[in-house]
Amino acid sequence: MYGGSAVRATTHADIARLGTRFLVFPQPSFIPGYERPETVWISTPLGGVTAGPADHRMYVVDPVGMKLPYQSPYLPPYTGRTYPPVMPGPDGHFDRLPIGSREFQAAHVFACVRRVLDICESYWGEEIPWFFQPTYERLEIVPQLDWDNAQSGFGFLELGEERIRTDPQPFALNFDAVAHEVGHLVLFGAMGVPRREPPREYFAYHEAVSDFIALLGLLHFDTALDLILRRTRGNLLLTNEFDRLAELSDEKEVRRFNHSLKMADVGREVHDLSKPFAGALFDTLIEIYQLLLFERGLSDLDPRTFWNLRSELPEERLEQELSASLIDTERRHFAAKAVLEEARDVLGSTLLGSWRLLDPAQLTYADAAEALIRTAGKGGARRFADRFEACLAWRGVLRAPGRIWPLRP
Fold first, then answer.
1. Which candidate, 149, 215, 355, 400, has a CA 20 to 30 Å from the CA of 253?
2. CA-CA-CA-CA torsion for 151, 187, 366, 393, nearest 10 degrees?
3. Dist. CA 181–CA 300, nearest whole Å
4. Peptide bond into 76 cis (omega under 30)
5. How far apart are CA 123 and CA 345, in angstroms?
6. How confident is the model at residue 242 (pLDDT cuts 50, 70, 90)?
7. What is the C-alpha separation between 132 and 135, in angstroms, rounded?
8. Omega within 30 of 0 (cis) for the link into 88
C-alpha cells in the first residue's frame, strides 16, 4: 500500500477487457523498417475471438482450391472445402502464429479488418452496422484468391495478390489494401446505401475517403509514427510511406496524397476524380499538424500567416521552408509524435462526424466539403475550420469559399 490506498487485484474480467492480441504489418515487410509486425490489441474481449479467426462481427473462411471472386447473384456464405480454421493460442491470443504461414495470413487480415473497424467506431462514437444486415449478421473474409485484385461487397471482403513484383505479395498482408476496402464498408454502414443512382462525385468521394481511412489507420501504429517522423525529421511533405496508399514496391504505389491536383486537372473516372478531395484532406492534416507544432514551440512557421500553405508557396520552396522551420526534431521527437496523433484525431473525428450531415443519394463534393467545415466549426475542431475551408477551396472542391466559415447563425 502507498499513501493508505490498496491496490485492487486484477480479475479475469479485467484481463478479458484488454482485448485480443494479434500481429500486424503496418506496411509491407519489404519496406525498410517494417520487416517485423507490430503487436496490436483488437477490441473483441479475450475469449471472444474463436477459431477462424471469428468473432460476433466477422469470420475468416479460407477456401481449398479455386474460388471465383464473388459477383451477384453468387454471394456468401462460401460452402466449398476450406482449410482448417486458425486456432487461438493456449492464452486465447493469436500473436504466436508462424509468420509467413497460411494461418498467419488469415489471422493478419482478420486483425486488420477489426483494427480499422475499431478505429472508425472510436471516431463515430458507436457501433457502425454492416450495410448488408439483416441478410448477413457477419462479414465473411476470404484471405487468399488466385486473383490480382481485392474487393468488398454485400457480406464479404476477399483478397488476391499484387503481381507487380517478381514475388507476388498477398493483399491480406497489406494493411493499406485491407483498410481501403473496410473503408468502403464503413461508409456504407454509417451513411447508408443510396436508394437511387447518386451523382458521380459520390463514388469518387467513396474512393477518396476509403483511401484516407487507410491513412488514418496507418497513423495508429507506433512503428509507422516513429519511422515517418524520423525519416522526414518532422516535415511530412517529404515523400515517404505516410504519403502512399497500398504500396506495392519500393518505387510504385496505387495512389498518392501529396500532390497538387485540383478539380480542373482530373477526369471523370472515379479514381482520378477522387484525387483532389483526398489531397484536400491530406493538406488539412498537414496544416493542423503545422499549426500545433507552432503553438507548442516545435516550429517557427505559423501557417495562419498564409491562406493555404500549398497555394502560396511553390512545392519545392514549401518543402524547404517547412524543413527549415522545424526546431530540434530529433531531441523533441515524442512531442512531435503527440502533435501528429492529435492532428490525426482531429481529422478522423471531423471526417466521420461529417457523414451525419450527408445524404448518399445526392452527395456532391460541395455537400461533403460544407459538411466537413460545419462539423469542424461546431465541435472541438472549431479553431481549425478555416484550415479545412482553405484546403478544400484551393483544390476546387469548394466552389464558394468564405460563405460557410465563419458559420452563419
1. 355
2. -80
3. 39
4. no
5. 8
6. low
7. 6
8. no
Residue 357: phi and psi, rounded to 5, are -100, 0
Provide the residue type at 101 as one letter: S
- Give 30 or 372, the one with higher predicted confidence: 372
The residue length of the chain stands at: 409
Most confident range, picked from 28-32, 252-256, 329-333, 369-373:
369-373
Is residue 399's pLDDT more than 90? Answer: no
CA 268 to each of CA 221, 276, 339, 368: distance values in angstroms, whole numbers, following the listed order: 34, 12, 36, 18
Nearest of 60, 236, 32, 81 to residue 138 by alpha carbon: 60
Bridge partners (DSSP) of residue 24 are: 38
**The predicted structure's pLDDT at residue 352:** 98
34, 28 contact by CB (below 8 A):
yes
Q: What's the chain's average pLDDT? A: 88
What tens digit of pLDDT does each residue of 270-297 get? 999 999 999 999 999 999 999 999 999 8
Instruction: Name the grid cell of 29.
Output: 515487410
Element (H, E) at 255: strand 253-256
Beta-sheet pairing, 139-142 with 150-153? unpaired
C-alpha to C-alpha distances, 396 to 168, 275, 305, nearest whole angstrom:
38, 11, 21
**What does the pLDDT average to over 134-142?**
97
Question: Is residue 52 over pLDDT 90?
Answer: yes
CB environment 348-375: b (16+ within 10 A), e (fewer): bbbbbbbbeebebeebbbebbbbbbbbb
Instruction: State how far the Cα of 221 lies from the Cα of 223, in Å rounded to an integer.
Output: 5
Q: Is the peptide bond before 129 cis (omega within 30 degrees of 0)?
A: no
